[in-house]
Amino acid sequence: MPQIKLIVGLGNPGSDYAQTRHNAGFWWVDELAKDANASLRHDNKFHGLAAKARLHGSDVWLLEPQTFMNRSGLSVVALAQFYKILPAEILVVHDELDIPAGQIKLKQGGGNGGHNGLKDIQAHLGTPDFWRLRVGIGHPGNKAEVANFVLKPPRKEEFEGMMDVFIKAHHVLPKMLAGDMGGAMQALHAGVQRPNKPKPE
């Protein structure tokens, strides 16, 4: 199994969107950068914030596209092509309407579920066969309310559930970086328990 060489967090740039459900991918990549003592810096050729990080003995690129969600693929393909990173070596972290807040799933390929970020990445890469870390945010219950729902901050209990699953994701990150995606999926989907990690204020 190929090792993960690029972790992409999806979101929208700017303070207006920073705390919204749609920016869940940014939140986790921010945490990874802190863990690695790496600085995400704007790189024009990659259309986003990027950093080379050393995590659990592996070198990995971290990327937060600054193109707005529906053009995320422009940023991802720019960095992937520059460093010759294959789709199977890319992990995209994103919010997922079809999973309740407090749950997280890992998979490779499949559909985009109407997620504009995934849709654009798939179009630019020419394949859906990249990895996705799907962070549950729940569903408003009405399709007409989805656009407004994802661009609002999560409720307190939802946010706490999302932080809990990020702890689980941190726990299995060494497996993902080593290419043991089967082991990572088994651990994540079994609901690995971890000691509490301080939550953001």
Structure description:
With 201 residues, the protein is α/β, with parallel strands linked by helices. The chain has a single domain, classed as Peptidyl-tRNA hydrolase (Rossmann fold, 3-Layer(aba) Sandwich), CATH 3.40.50.1470. Helix content is 35%, strand content 20%. The chain has a 7-stranded mixed beta sheet, with helices on both faces. A hairpin with a 4-residue loop joins strand 2 (41-43) and strand 3. The termini are far apart. Its EC number is 3.1.1.29. Monomer. It catalyses: an N-acyl-L-alpha-aminoacyl-tRNA + H2O = an N-acyl-L-amino acid + a tRNA + H(+).
Helix content: 25-40%
Q: Could you say what the CATH architecture is?
A: 3-Layer(aba) Sandwich
Question: How far apart, in Å, are the first and last alpha carbons?
Answer: 38 Å
CATH topology call: Rossmann fold
Radius of gyration: 15 Å
CATH class: Alpha Beta
Continuous helix count: 6
Work out the oligomeric state of the chains in this entry.
Answer: single chain
- The total count of strands amounts to 7
Name the helix and strand elements from N-terminus to C-terminus, one letter apiece. EHEEEHEEHEHHH
List keywords for this structure.
single chain; disordered C terminus; alpha/beta; seven-stranded mixed beta sheet; Rossmann fold; 201 residues
SSE diagram, text form:
Blueprint: E1 6-9, H1 24-35, E2 41-43, E3 48-55, E4 58-65, H2 72-82, E5 90-96, E6 104-108, H3 116-125, E7 131-136, H4 146-150, H5 156-178, H6 181-189
Parallel strand pairs: 1-4, 1-5, 5-7
Antiparallel strand pairs: 2-3, 3-4, 6-7
Helix pairs in contact: 2-3, 5-6
